[in-house]
Design goal:
Helix content is 50%, strand content 10%. Helix 4 links the parallel strand 4 and strand 5.
Length: 447
């Protein structure tokens, strides 16, 4: 496998003197690499050739492959991606590797996959949590044709996707849960075991100064230090008021549910609420540009905010994404922090992805910030998000605005939405509007 690990998602490593910039440090074998049921054993089992006497009997016992799905689960910067890459290199180095752009790309390949194919699903959450996401059926189709799927996922996101919905709530993660059930799971801990530490010391003694430097840290795990995690946290803590405002706005937006790149207009509009009145009054004319330059500066190979380009373009920035380790660390610290109104308004004004709008709307709803929730749900519903439409109806009905909810549902009944047909009947029945119910019945509403 000749793919560039950095392009497959491996974090940039810390920089130390006498090491070639850009090259990865030597790999430290993890316990799971060597265990009978570890990551390499699972990939080997998935790729194992066998004689298929049933489906391919007519082809004179043609050799096929078993196929499978191996998922590495753990926190940010614990080594999931590097471990998966090294496992593929060790077990099936000559297989084709597909790094898909999105779930639609995977579905196209599943229609006629080549033999000996690895489907690389690093950051699996990018393929989940949406109606057009990766389905269990597509994964099965690939595995039935012998493909090996390899993915990575944060532990907290795995728990969120596999949690059962509360009673009476829609099951928005049903497909994701079904897909994850297909995977053989490998859990990686942020702390190295004693045997892993011993192997790391052997690598350091062999001359890798980055591993040697990381081993000196007592506050962070080796892999987090390697990924420049401490430098990112220090950059966040030591930022001036304006850079700190931009970073905190990006961190809050992400923890509220935004998964798309955060555009500059959103961050500029959100930031003032994170500054005190004196800092706002004395802000220089270039406060935002200077803050963004600080946030995107590289600290030992990594940046707090990474600029991202639109698809198929060069030299343009569509938005920014918070570094994973910083998001995990700072997001946890800010979990109880109050999000200022400027951030909520910026999210309401500048988010364009209906999935982002729905998730942030739900976050506002949970905090009883109903005007923001309503506006976000309405925008998502206009882009045909059925879940946002349902949430909007429940918000309106719960706030005593049944007439608005009924009017909204009438439009969606015309679009053939079964939820709208049932909920409309319930609201009309609650109000005793017999004539309206009779009209619906005559029009064919079975509810």
């Amino acid at each position: 496998m000749h793919a560039d690990p950095r392009r497959l998602g491996v974090h940039a490593a810390i920089e130390v003197p006498d090491e070639t910039a850009g090259e990865l440090p030597l790999y430290v074998d993890r316990d799971t690499d060597l265990e009978p049921c570890g990551v390499r054993a699972l990939i080997r089992q998935a790729a194992k050739e066998y004689r298929n006497h049933h489906r391919r009997l007519a082809l004179a016992k043609q050799s096929s492959t078993r196929g499978g799905f191996v998922l590495l689960i753990g926190g940010s910067s614990v080594g999931k991606t590097r471990t998966a890459i090294e496992a593929l290199r060790a077990v099936i180095p000559n297989w084709w590797l597909l790094r898909p752009n999105d779930a639609h790309h995977v579905r196209r390949v599943a229609e006629n996959p080549p033999r000996h194919l690895v489907v690389w699903l690093d950051e699996l959450q990018n393929f989940l949590g949406r109606p057009d996401g990766l389905t269990a059926a597509t994964a099965r189709a690939l595995m039935d044709n012998g493909a090996v799927l390899v993915g990575t996922l944060w532990s907290v996101r795995y728990q969120a996707y596999t949690a059962l919905p509360s009673s009476g709530q829609p099951d928005v993660c049903g497909n994701d849960r079904e897909l994850l059930r297909l995977a053989e799971k490998v859990h990686l801990d942020k702390d190295f075991t004693r045997s892993e530490q011993e192997r790391a010391h052997e690598v350091a003694e062999a001359g890798d100064q980055r591993v040697a430097t990381a081993l000196k840290s007592k506050d962070y795990g080796l892999t987090q230090v390697m990924a420049a995690g401490p430098n990112l946290v220090a950059a966040w803590r030591n930022a001036d008021p304006y850079a700190g405002a931009v970073l905190n706005a990006a961190i809050d937006a992400t923890r509220l549910g935004v998964q798309s790149p955060l555009n500059a207009e959103l961050l500029r509009a959100a930031a003032p609420g994170y500054c005190d009145p004196s800092h706002r009054a004395t802000a220089p004319s270039n406060w935002f540009e200077a803050a963004l330059a600080y946030a995107t500066a590289r600290h030992n190979g990594a940046a707090a905010l990474t600029p991202l380009a639109p698809p198929d373009t060069m030299g343009q920035i569509s938005g920014y994404r918070v570094a994973e380790y910083l998001q995990q660390h700072a997001g946890h610290e800010r979990r109880d922090a109050t999000v200022p109104d400027t951030c909520w308004q910026a999210l309401t004004d500048h988010l364009t992805d209906p999935h982002d709008q729905t998730r942030v709307g739900a976050a506002a709803d949970e905090r009883l910030l109903f005007p923001y929730a309503e506006s976000l749900y309405r925008k998502a519903a206009r882009d045909n998000s059925s879940y946002a439409a349902r949430q909007l109806v429940e918000l309106l009905a719960g706030r005593g605005r049944e007439e608005e909810a009924i009017e909204f549902l009438h439009h969606h009944v015309d679009d053939g939405d079964p939820y709208a047909a049932r909920r409309l009947v319930e609201l009309l029945a609650d109000q005793g509007r017999e004539e309206d119910l009779r009209a619906l019945a005559e029009a064919g509403n079975s509810y």
